[in-house]
Amino acid sequence: MDFNFSEDQQQLRDAVRRWVNKAYTFERRREIVAEGGFSRAAYTQLAELGLTALAVPEAHGGLGHGPVDVMVAMEELGRGIVLEPLAQAVVASAVLSQYAPAEAQAQWLPKIASGEALVVLAHQERKARWRLDVCSATATASGSGHVINAHKSLVPAGDQADTFLVPAQLNGHIALFLVERGASGVALRGYGTQDGGRAAELQCTDTPATLLTQHGLTALTLALDVANAALCAEAVGAMEQTLAITVDYMN
């Protein structure tokens, strides 16, 4: 078994590292934190590098790359402790491409790939204690669609997001819905996080929503697996850079 990076993966690593070293210095990061913890310009630059398209299937304008390529990119972003939530683009790409109906895929995956839309997972609830099967949000049929009533916490970059993936109870089971920021009944309260980034409380009150899948718990499990792998790679990059800086200082 060959654990070495391919030539394409090495080129990806080098490209992301160059961007971090040039465009996301510690000084620039401090400026972004002072400005609120999110830079749309920086996120657009990630899209221009092709990073938001990494996990999007080629049929929807993405690169169709696998998890190793995502880990390569996330590790390099970790070196700069980049605040913009690329991991959320990867999570949304994975969930939509595997669970969403064709119409939703065609509408949202190209926008994720281009960086036009920031789609984030909004699943945490205050009483859930990190359990995926604890969900007090509810969804009911309304006309040809559904409406959601929910309160979700710690939504990554929630006050900057364009669209949310929201689990809710439907007919006694957890289903997964797509909620657009501009939909009626959506209220957001953003705040800074301890790492300098952004999060938000998301309130949905009789909010129109698109049903993605009735297998919500399975989709959430995939989402968290993808997110955890991406964040672990990011942490490795941060630790490697910290070690390198420390060694350089000690010498």
Tell me what the structure shows.
InterPro entries: Acyl-CoA_Oxase/DH_mid-dom_sf, AcylCoA_DH/ox_N, AcylCoA_DH/ox_N_sf, AcylCoA_DH/oxidase_NM_dom_sf. Residues 6-116 form the Acyl-CoA dehydrogenase/oxidase N-terminal domain. This is Acyl-CoA dehydrogenase. GO terms for molecular function: acyl-CoA dehydrogenase activity; flavin adenine dinucleotide binding. The chain is an alpha+beta fold. It has helices at residues 7-23, 26-34, 40-48, 67-79, 86-99, 102-114, 216-250; strands at 119-121, 138-142, 145-156, 163-170, 173-180, 186-192, 198-213. Strands 1, 2, 3, 4, 5, 6 and 7 form a seven-stranded mixed beta sheet that branches. A hairpin with a 2-residue loop joins strand 2 and strand 3 (145-156). The chain starts with 6 loop residues before the first helix and ends with a helix.
Structural class: alpha+beta
**Biggest sheet details:** 7 strands, mixed
Assign a percent range to the helix content.
40-55%
Radius of gyration, CA atoms, in whole angstroms: 18 Å
The amount of beta strand, in percent, is 15-25%
User: Distance between termini?
Assistant: 37 Å
CATH-defined architecture of the largest domain: Orthogonal Bundle
Q: Count the domains.
A: 2
Mean pLDDT: 96
Uncertain segments of ≥5 residues (pLDDT<50)? none
Order of helices and strands: HHHHHHEEEEEEEH
CATH superfamily of the largest domain: Acyl-CoA dehydrogenase/oxidase, N-terminal domain
Q: What is the overall number of helices?
A: 7
Keywords: FAD, Flavoprotein, Oxidoreductase
Protein name: Acyl-CoA dehydrogenase
Organism: Acidovorax cavernicola
GO molecular function: acyl-CoA dehydrogenase activity; flavin adenine dinucleotide binding
